[in-house]
Amino acid sequence: MTRASARPLDVPAGPPPLDPPPPAVLAVRRDGDTLVASGQVAVRDGDLLATGRVGAEVDLGTAQRCAWQCARNVLDAVAAEIGSLDRIAQTTKVTVYVASDPAFTDQHLVAHGASALFLAALGDDRGRHARAAIGVAALPLGSAVEVEATFRVAA
After folding, report:
1. Measuring CA to CA, which residue among 150, 144, 151 is closest to residue 69?
2. For residues 133 and 153, what is the distance between their CA atoms, to the nearest angstrom?
3. Strands 88-99 and 130-136
4. Is 27 helix (H, G, I), strand (E, B) or coil?
5. Cα–Cα distances in Å, from 135 out to 47, 54, 100?
6. What tens digit of pLDDT does each residue of 25-63 get?
7. CB atoms near residue 75 (< 10 Å)
8. Distance between CA atoms of residues 7 and 18, nearest Å
């Protein structure tokens, strides 16, 4: 019997209400020298920059600006967690989710907006990263873009 199964399950039978987000979800999670930043949508001053699908309601240029803002929001969350972006040693992986019209196939071009922000904010050595750009049917709040990232931090 494992330790987890040895204790009685003292949780409600059903799931909790959907609002607010569950307390288990963190904006940034640290594990040793690794920081994993949860996905951030393109919110600025409390408003989404764009809603809808890229290639339909949202054009490529707007989607790239959304990706830039998402990446900025990721860095804001990281800075709040570790105190200073100077502590980032390396951006290791960036994933860009693009709410896409079925015919849209330039998700990688949207992702360039996020990559450009990480390079501008952190420089070539600390900002370069591996990346995935993924087309999806929809994103939270109707956002056109969402960005998550993983970083290595200095001790």
Report:
1. 144
2. 24
3. parallel
4. coil
5. 22, 9, 5
6. 899 999 999 999 999 999 999 999 999 999 999 999 999
7. 20
8. 27
Q: How many CB atoms lie within 10 A of CB 16?
A: 10
Structural contact between residues 68 and 112, judged by C-beta atoms closer than 8 angstroms: no
Tokens of 131: 């990346």
Compute the residue count for the chain: 155
The answer to whether residues 78 and 103 touch, using CB atoms and an 8 Å cutoff, is no
pLDDT in tens, 102-127: 999 999 999 999 999 999 999 999 99
Q: Kindly tell me the sign of the dihedral angle through the C-alpha atoms of 51, 56, 59, 64.
A: positive
Residues in CB range of 150: below 8 A, 6 or more apart = 34, 35, 36, 37, 91, 92, 93, 94
Nearest Cα residue to 54 out of 115, 104, 108, 126: 104
CB-based burial, 130-142: b 16+ in 10 Å, e otherwise? ebebebeeebeee
